Amino acid sequence: MNADRRPAALVTGAAGGIGGAIVAALGDAGWDVLAVDLRPDPETGPGASFAADLTTREGNRAAVEHALDRFGRLDAIVANAGMQHVAPVADFPEDRWDALLALMLTSPFLLAKYAWPALAASGDGRIVAVASAHAQVASPFKSAYVSAKHGVLGLVKTLALEGAEQGITATAVCPGFVRTPLVEAQIGDQARAHGLPEEDVLRDVILAPHAVKRLLEPEEIAATVAFLLGPAGRAFTGVPVTMDLGWTAR
Ligand SMILES: NC(=O)c1ccc[n+]([C@@H]2O[C@H](COP(=O)([O-])OP(=O)(O)OC[C@H]3O[C@@H](n4cnc5c(N)ncnc54)[C@H](O)[C@@H]3O)[C@@H](O)[C@H]2O)c1
């Protein structure tokens, strides 16, 4: 990054629980932020907002072009937008498979592709995908989510190797369950899929894999992303940055 000017980041899923916290943390750390979402929330934080459907090529291209038009540069991409669908594989709707893969695997690829020249010009470009513990382990009834998250970890490793000579780093933050609408919305689906009452789902399903029995808070993920985008994050590339309260220690 050129120290004479404010660095600029594009954050996707910025109207959501984790994305909103990331926009706020980067604003506090002195970044210009383009907050991209299907339905941007102007109240989310200090960033400028931009509406785009990131399941489409045009949406991803428009988001990068808008950031470059607005800031004249781009030093970081935070590919955070995501969604979930919980269903057994035999019943899994094929359109939902396509949409989850488009949003959580293809969008990070397209954002990296379109932003690549600007990230290289930055001299200190950063790509962070907000992946999941599900980039490293699986759970039943989440075939599309687990596949997309494993895929984005592979993408990040590849970007790290390709970006090494150009000063571009790439990492995948891999959280356990975080207190956001995405988790709250799946309690009913999980109850149906597991045949449990909704009140048992948080304890018996959602927190079951965590060694530490609590949800992460969005601000904890945001602080990690801000760290990875800051000077101390420079040594992290091509790796999952796991923050899963002991899930994958077993
Ligand atoms: N909440 C968790 O427990 C948890 C755990 C690990 C990883 N994650 C990951 O963190 C990321 C953020 O999740 P969250 O919990 O904040 O979810 P969230 O539902 O609060 O936010 C997701 C955001 O993505 C946006 N989005 C959805 N479809 C889009 C599209 N087509 N184009 C543009 N934007 C779109 C939504 O509008 C929403 O604002 C996701 O990638 C998720 O997989 C979440």
Automatic annotation (TrEMBL):
Lineage, broadest ranks: Bacteria, Bacillati, Actinomycetota, Thermoleophilia, Solirubrobacterales
GO biological process: monocarboxylic acid metabolic process
Coiled-coil regions listed: none
InterPro entries with a match to the protein in the record: NAD(P)-bd_dom_sf (IPR036291), Sc_DH/Rdtase_CS (IPR020904), SDR (IPR050259), SDR_fam (IPR002347)
One term of GO molecular function: oxidoreductase activity
PROSITE patterns, A to Z: ADH_SHORT
Keyword tags: Oxidoreductase
Name of this protein: Short-chain dehydrogenase/reductase SDR
Family affiliation: Belongs to the short-chain dehydrogenases/reductases (SDR) family.
